[in-house]
Amino acid sequence: MKSNTFKYILRVIVGIVFIISSIAKLLSIDSFELYIFGFELFSLGFSYLAARLVIAMELALGIFLIINIDSKFIYWVAMTVLSGFTLFLALLAFAGNEENCNCFGEFVNLNPVQSIIKNIILIAILLFSSKLSSFNLKWKNIWRIIIPIGAIATIFIVSPPDNWRYENYNRGVTLNEEAFREGFETSVLPQEINEGEKVVCFYSLKCEFCRKSAQKIGTMRRMGTFSNAEIIAIIGKGEDSPDPERYFEETKLDCSKYYYISPSDFLRITNGSMPLILVMKDGEVIEKFRYRDIH
């Protein structure tokens, strides 16, 4: 009996780690979506879906480990998931990738090697609980259905994918057209924006969603799913703004030119909302986006 209790405690520890991991990913879902999308294997829409299914899987698996029904089956599922994640991380480490692997979202920054160590510890804990007896709970068949469906429904209700709401987001994209036109008349904005096709990105380099939009657009352009026009960045100048060259190198956005404007002009043109992305042709705004509706 004492042996079974000890094994159950170990199983609960692994279950709690899975649940914490799922919650951390959900709370930083934008970063997790971009992490998946950044591999350039899936479309943006599928990356939204895949991110939420991974989170739901971790949440459901954590709950199953704790309530301890179908102990042997759940043990092998958890072992397979951890082994699969570890193999994936090993490939990243072998390729020299040192970025945050998003195991705990943005809350704990772990590179692939550190995350591999974490997974090996969890696998070892699981091994010590390998012969744990299942609890004799009532309505097992109901739990087997409710937990995965409930996990998926919860994740998609709490955080619906952006592509479900593009129209709503797009209606909220505003540009102060009067200030925008005046910007050219007063030389606040460069005239070359009006020449040919351009993607104009209004960024504050300290804005989290500006950085994420740069990452998203950069990946989309490499995959051929966003305008391939020249990118010009208009940056709201702050006293301690990051270096733009490093910024665009880190975000992997192929920005050809950038210009600084004063914070007051920046806020007036963008109506205080950022990022603002304009797709232009011969001086006309063809499309405009914020972060959420970039597609």
Would you summarize the structure shown here?
The protein has 295 residues and is of the alpha/beta class.
Structural summary, described in words:
The model has no long low-confidence stretch (mean pLDDT 93). The protein folds into two domains: 2-163, no CATH class; 168-289, Glutaredoxin (3-Layer(aba) Sandwich), CATH 3.40.30. It has helices at residues 2-27, 29-37, 44-67, 71-94, 112-128, 140-158, 166-171, 177-185, 208-222, 244-251, 263-270, and strands at 197-203, 230-236, 255-261, 276-281, 284-289. Helix content is 56%, strand content 11%. 34% of the residues are buried. The chain contains eleven helices and five strands. It is of the alpha/beta class and 295 residues long. Strands 3-2-1-4-5 form a five-stranded mixed sheet. The radius of gyration is 24 Å and the shape is elongated.
